[in-house]
Amino acid sequence: MNHIDRLIVFYFSGTGNSRRIALWLSELALENNIPCCSYDIATTDISTVQPIDNSATIVLISPVHGFNFPEITLNFIRNLPKGKNRIVLMNTRAGIKLSKFIIPGLTGIAFMLAAAILKSKGYTIAGQIPFDMPSNWISIHPALRSRHIEFILTKNHDKVITHFERLNAGETDFASNKDIVQDILISPVALAYYFIGRYFFAKSYYASDQCIHCDLCIKECPVKAIEKVEGRPYWTFRCENCMRCMNNCPTNAIETTHGLWIIILLLTPVVCSLLYYGILPTSLHHGLAHFILFNFIFLALITLLYRIQQMALKNKICSKIISWMSLTHYKFWGRYKCK
To answer: Keywords, A to Z (predicted)?
Structure first.
């Protein structure tokens, strides 16, 4: 007997991990003769979705960025109308294969924050389930090998089946509870990422000389964060770091500016110290003032130097130097493809 009368799946996906979970759930629903509809958050205006009957079970799937749901997902949750449905929260974290095991990622405050918002709207949280899908964060590490990706996908497909059966039996499923301690401990990092870190990573991308000006990255960006500046794609602070552009670029022209990272990380404390001890009055020499000044300088340098880099990319010699300083420029680094 099905305890799920109707399944509504909302998902946000950068490179395909969350979309794959949504697809697996839809297939399981069809196998069990459960009506199911899936919606991509990036292309769905919640006001245009037909009213959801309270008997329907809603599943919300999103990757975790900086130990929290990305802003596009949080905005979608905030804009959901009030309801009394059962909602199951799912996320896709960065999983990496080690021997016969998958090293799990961390959820951080993603479930806690989303659940609090949804409960305030009248919804019942019926589950919080993390899936450690293949890590796509190519800015930080090389692409996973194909056989490792297949191993991780197979394991997660089995997990989806197990959790679906549990939910369809009328049970609640809070698989995330086993991670609650580390999620709480990592929460300060999640807050730092939300207010500062995501803007740093938003300015991590540039288009190298391999760019063929197809504008695919601009057209496919789920949050419309990429513009054309100086004749090249230019990433704004709206970027969610979903990695879609980098991993889908047909010529692998989109790279991470590791050289700029080093310059910013070296310059920020130097400039901050000069201003802190050279300009600020002694009465303002305390931790809070230093913290505010440091982050202001950090964001200011990111904005300024990224703009300078964009102009420098027009020069062939400068462009090559910038690419040489990016690990993502080299073939061994690879890209993540979720087919």
So the answer is: 4Fe-4S, Iron, Iron-sulfur, Membrane, Metal-binding, Pyruvate, Transmembrane, Transmembrane helix
Q: What is the pTM of this model?
A: 0.92
DSSP state of 142: P
Same domain, 249 and 278: yes
pLDDT digits (tens, 9 = 90+) for 203-234: 999 999 999 999 999 999 999 999 999 889 99
Written as six digits, the tokens of 297 are 């300088």
Main-chain dihedrals φ then ψ at residue 215, nearest 5 degrees: 65, 20
The answer to whether the Cα torsion of 219, 223, 226, 227 is positive or negative is: positive
Write out pLDDT tens, residues 13-48. Answer: 999 999 999 999 999 999 999 999 999 999 988 877
The answer to whether the beta carbons of residues 231 and 314 sit under 8 Å apart is: yes
Taking the C-alpha atoms of residue 291 and residue 38, their distance in angstroms, rounded to an integer, is 43
Q: Is 207 helix (H, G, I), strand (E, B) or coil?
A: strand
Read off φ and ψ for residue 152, nearest 5 degrees.
-65, -40
Instruction: Determine the Cα–Cα distance for residues 130 and 64; give it in Å rounded to an integer.
Output: 10
Same domain, 166 and 218: no
Q: Is residue 100 domain-shared with residue 159, that is, in the same domain?
A: yes
| The total number of residues written for the chain in this structure | 339
Q: Which residues contact 165 (CB under 8 A, 6 or more apart)?
A: none
| Contact predicate 64/93, CB 8 Å | yes
Q: Is 172 in the same domain as 284?
A: no
